[in-house]
Amino acid sequence: MKIAPSILSADFADLADSAARAEGADMLHIDVMDGVFVPNITIGPGVVAALRKRFSLPFDVHLMIVNPERHISAFAEAGADIITVQVESTPHVHRAVQMVKQAGLKAGVCINPATPACMVSELLDIADMILIMTVNPGFGGQTMIPSALRKVEEVSRMVQASGRQIDIEVDGGINEATIVDAARAGANVFVAGSHVYGSSDPAAAVRRLREAALSAIASR
Ligand code: DX5
Ligand code: ZN
């Protein structure tokens, strides 16, 4: 079980200190948006490089940008540990994943709520993580789309059949209640932005999310 706070909901005027308040996190989730693939614009490699100097935690970089191939090396050099590309963002997802692997990083593949699970089937022999969006990407603070959890179950079955060790990450609308359903559906990496950074005690929020996910699995 890994908890990945999304710094999209941290205080951008005080980003490093604000992000660091999520003590106990397993990695930091960094949302990169270009205003084209999604309506919002966020963080570039310069900010990732600046944060890298302040954190030893793994950086889970989620690219919501068109032509991700053009930017993979910049984010790798900036200090990403995992780079995730959206299957809808390029006709050459396999090449993008290969580029991430060739840079020596872990590669994730992400699917939007309207994208079927089968879109990742030909990537299971190369991907290290499948990210299932549980909201439409672009903004923090949205409510989870319940039907996305059926897809988590489907991807979980596909991953088991592959025989490979592949993480299943969920992103969007994760809180202490929805994390239980996501964990039961088969997810093991949980992104949480507004729930963690909207809390007066982000470290406690991380701890409680982990406890909720672990108890969901224990009672399965
Ligand atoms: C949405 C981003 C998410 C976002 C999640 O496009 O990919 O990582 O920060 O925010 P919450 O947890 O608030 O739904
Ligand atoms: Zn994200």
Your description of this structure?
- By secondary structure, this protein is of the alpha/beta class.
- The chain is built from eight helices and eight strands, in the order βαβαβαβαββαβαβαα.
- The chain starts with a strand and ends with a helix.
- The mean pLDDT is 98.
- The structure holds D-xylitol-5-phosphate (DX5) and zinc ion.
- The site of zinc ion has 6 residues, from strand 2.
- The site of D-xylitol-5-phosphate has 21 residues, from strand 2, strand 8 and helix 7.
Protein topology:
Layout: E1 2-5, H1 15-20, E2 28-33, H2 45-52, E3 59-64, H3 72-78, E4 82-86, H4 93-102, E5 106-111, E6 129-133, H5 148-162, E7 167-171, H6 178-185, E8 189-192, H7 194-197, H8 202-218
Parallel strand pairs: 1-8, 2-3, 3-4, 4-5, 5-6, 6-7, 7-8
Bound molecules: D-xylitol-5-phosphate (DX5) and zinc ion.
Which strand order do you get reading across the main beta sheet?
A: 1-8-7-6-5-4-3-2
Which ligands accompany this protein? D-xylitol-5-phosphate, zinc ion
Please report the number of helical segments.
8
Q: What is the H-and-E element order?
A: EHEHEHEHEEHEHEHH
Give the radius of gyration. Answer: 16 Å
* Global shape: globular
The tally of beta strands, per DSSP, is 8
What is the percentage of strand-forming residues? Answer: 15-25%
Helical residues, percent: 25-40%
Average pLDDT for all residues = 98
Major sheet details: 8 strands, parallel
Which parts are unreliable, with pLDDT below 50 for 5 consecutive residues or more?
none
State the separation between the terminal residues, measured CA to CA.
Answer: 15 Å
Which structural class fits the helix and strand makeup? alpha/beta
| Oligomerization status of the protein chains | single chain
